[in-house]
Amino acid sequence: MRKLNAIVTAVIMVFFLIHMIWGGLMMTGMAKGGNKFFSAISFTMVLFICVHVIIGFILTIDSIVAGIKSGTFYIKENILFLTRRISGFALLLFIAIHIILFTGTNEGGTFRLRPFDMAALVSQILMVVSLMVHLTTNITPLRIALGITGKRDLKSDVVLIISILLLLAGISFIVYFIRWQVI
After folding, report:
1. Helical H runs in the chain?
2. Which of 21, 28, 71, 78 is 20 to 30 A off residue 117, Cα-Cα?
3. What's the confidence (pLDDT) of residue 153?
């Protein structure tokens, strides 16, 4: 089950990188919105996220059952486990808001989005932060599940790359917000 979840996670990360780069280009005005291929990638990513959530839920239940059977939950020792689950749940809420914000309409052949106000900006920055927490706390289990062990430098490289990409995503949301205020 963990191996399947690792593969699903890797697929989500590939789709996410495409989504983030293309979405950032659209938000900053460097690419045109309403692309059917981009929409298909986005909704495929959502399907994989749903599979990831179901598998994560099953694995969480298994951990809780094991804690009940042993009689001890080791809350202090499992703070990372709780951080992963809480950040994942927060991420689900922010992804739902993201989908609502960026699902537009085609009016007369022109793609229209919902207005992007301060509440939208804050929600999207919080999504980036929760994604950062979720990704960085789950890199080690992902590496282990994929059989990539003994490469500590790889972990720090991945964290650096994720940090830079998510910083650029946050900047794209800010630029997008400014563009909405100016237009």
Report:
1. 2-27, 36-70, 79-102, 118-145, 152-182
2. 21
3. 64
